[in-house]
Design brief:
Helices cover about 20% and strands about 45% of the residues. By secondary structure, the protein is an alpha+beta fold. It has a single domain (about 20-120), classed as Lipocalin (Beta Barrel). β2 and β3 form a beta hairpin. The chain is globular.
């Protein structure tokens, strides 16, 4: 095999390899842009939920079968943080993106997927 064919074979093999997705931890400005004015939809502790992130820093958490909760949210140190009426302290999660999907991630919980819908959509359509 000539040098030219060897190089061409190597290039073709590289192009044929599937892209390997990497998880990315979002930074402050990315989390703000992602959440602000939008609604996260997912399942938390076995219950379906929707959470609206008002640009003014207030939040509404609507869980199926339960009364909605009012709280506040912020982004600090590259983490999403929230506090609710029943909480004494702010709690935080990293926001990760992997293969186009988003996840809440902390040291004490497994990665929890969520999707986003534009605007305030607390009721499923």
């Amino acid at each position: 095999m000539t040098v030219r064919r060897t190089i061409l074979a190597g290039l073709l093999a590289t192009l044929a390899m599937p892209a390997i997705a990497q998880s990315v931890k979002l930074q402050n400005h990315e989390i703000m842009a992602l959440l602000s004015g939008n609604t996260a939809v997912g399942t938390w502790a076995g219950a379906n939920y929707r959470q609206y992130f008002n640009p003014d820093g207030t939040a509404i958490y609507a869980q199926e079968g339960s009364r909605s909760a009012l709280g506040a949210w912020r982004v600090q140190n590259n983490t999403y943080q929230s506090i609710w009426q029943s909480d004494a302290e702010w709690e935080g999660w990293f926001v990760m993106e992997f293969g186009g999907d988003f996840y809440w991630v902390s040291k004490t919980t497994p990665p929890t997927p969520f999707t986003l819908v534009a605007g305030k959509q607390l009721v499923a359509n």
